[in-house]
Every structure is written in structure tokens, then in C-alpha cells.
Design brief:
Largest sheet: none
Number of strands: 0
Strand content: under 5%
Distance between the termini: 13 Å
Number of helices: 10
Order of helices and strands: HHHHHHHHHH
Length: 270
């Protein structure tokens, strides 16, 4: 990535490896492949330490000053790096949020897998996965609404449905595949529904996230109660779909999802 906007570029010791993002699920442990905007799991070398420092500094300043009032120059100054270095790793401010999305998604997936271990009830696994996200996101709730106006714009790279959000979305959908696969419900479901279900469960998470953004109750208790009450309901509806009498409805729903919902979700990272 070429340096933009002032300052000198990083030294060769700071240069990232530049590997492309995978199309499949990224690993939760170990170094993740690097993608545009410096979006990768932290490693131990100097390059990754610099990237992590810039990202951590940005998150702190976003909390303290607000997203709109925090400039890349201020982030670079606070992190003790050149402006050119900051732009090398994150070519524009939006990519800092993408870096945050990616890191949050990895942390959430790893945490949820640990919590789900030994549990086979589908409703419990789904609730664990959703609650795990709320717990991982707790520290960022105060300034989450600042990003919503931008993320809600369908043309924004910050949208969870954008092409740029593809790596984080792939990791999240893979987690929901595991929510289903590790449950007692998985072998009982119609194969067509089972194929679409991880994407639908990710959309369920997006509803939870939207509610969470605007929730001002202590410890976002209303969102947590929403998760507690909605997951058994979702599990019951999904469980009913395996009965023959509901197969025509399942096929109609599958058609609607494939024709109108999935095509709106970006699939490739630019």
C-alpha cells in the first residue's frame, strides 16, 4: 500500500507481509492473513505491534473525542508514529473501524467457542453466541452510536453488508455454522435450510447489534433480555421447520432469502 498524505513511509522492518484475505473461515488462533487496510490478527513482529498500537490509540481517541472529531493526524501523534506510517497501515479512517470489526469478530468467535464447549442444545448454543458478542463489545458501547450513522449508509465501507466487511462477516457466519453443527438439531434439519441458516443467524445478530447500539439501560440489560427471550423462540421455529407439513413454507422462505436478502450482502473483499 502506498503512503498517502504526508510523512515518511515505514521502514522495511515495519512493512506488512501483504498476503491476500482468504475466502473461507479465518483461523481464530495464530496469525491471520493480512488484507487491505492493515486488517489482520496481531502478531509479535514490529510491523504488527505498530499496527496494533495505531488501532488501540484510535479506539481510545474515538471514545474520548468522538469519531468525527478524531483525525488521522491526531491518532498518529498520540501513537508516536508519522502520519505516513498511520496511512500506510490504515489508508483512511474508516479502515480503523474495519480493523476494529475484524479484531472484535475474532475475539467473539474464540470466546463463544470456549463457552459453547460441551453444550449441544441449539437454543443454548445460540444464546451463548449472542451473549458472548454483547460481553466482548461492552467496552465499546458508549461510542458505538457514533459509527451507526456511517455504517447505516448502504454505500459505506463500514456497513456490515459491504464488500469491505466480508472478512469479519465470514468469520461470524462460520461461528454460526458451528453453533448449528455442534447442536443436536443439525442432523434433523432439511439440508436446504441448514445451508442458509448460518447467514440467517448472522442477520439475527445484526438485529441484536442494532438494538444494543440504542440501548441505554444499565449493562444493556434490555438487549440481554431480548437475547434471552428471542433465542428460544428462534430455536422453536427452526425446529418446527423439520416437519414435513412445514416443508413448503421452508422452500418459500428459502426462495425469498436467496432472491432478496443474500444478494444484498457483499461477498468479496476489495
Amino acid at each position: 500500500m502506498a503512503t498517502t498524505n504526508g510523512g515518511s513511509g515505514p521502514t522495511s522492518a515495519d512493512s506488512p507481509a501483504g498476503a491476500a484475505a482468504p475466502d473461507g473461515r479465518p483461523p481464530v488462533s495464530g496469525p491471520a492473513p493480512e488484507v487491505r487496510g492493515g486488517r489482520a490478527q496481531p502478531k509479535t513482529d514490529k510491523s504488527e505491534q505498530t499496527r496494533a498500537l495505531i488501532l488501540e490509540t484510535a479506539m481510545r481517541l474515538f471514545q474520548e473525542r468522538g469519531y468525527e472529531k478524531t483525525t488521522m493526524r491526531a491518532i498518529a501523534a498520540e501513537a508516536g508514529v508519522s502520519v505516513g506510517n498511520a496511512y500506510y497501515y490504515f489508508e483512511k479512517k474508516e479502515f480503523l473501524i474495519q480493523g476494529f470489526y475484524d479484531r472484535m469478530t475474532y475475539e467473539h468467535a474464540a470466546d463463544a467457542r470456549v463457552r459453547m464447549a460441551g453444550t449441544s442444545d441449539f437454543a443454548e448454543r445460540l444464546e451463548i453466541a449472542l451473549t458472548s458478542w454483547l460481553d466482548c463489545a461492552t467496552d465499546y458501547h458508549e461510542f458505538a452510536a457514533q459509527f451507526f450513522r456511517t455504517a447505516a449508509d448502504p454505500t459505506s465501507s463500514l456497513s456490515p453488508f459491504s464488500n469491505e466487511s466480508h472478512p469479519a462477516r465470514t468469520t461470524a457466519v462460520a461461528l454460526f455454522s458451528e453453533v448449528l453443527a455442534g447442536s443436536e438439531l443439525a442432523p434433523k434439519l432439511d439440508s436446504e435450510l441448514a445451508e442458509l441458516l448460518p447467514d440467517l443467524l448472522w442477520l439475527h445478530l445484526m438485529v441484536v447489534v442494532l438494538y444494543w447500539v440504542f440501548d441505554r439501560t444499565p449493562d444493556t440489560e434490555r438487549t440481554r433480555e431480548f437475547v434471552r427471550r428471542s433465542t428460544p423462540m428462534a430455536a422453536r421455529i427452526i425446529n418446527l421447520s423439520r416437519y414435513r407439513v412445514f416443508r413448503p413454507i421452508v422452500r418459500d422462505a428459502k426462495g425469498l432469502i436467496q432472491d432478496f436478502i443474500l444478494p444484498t450482502i457483499g461477498r468479496t473483499a476489495r
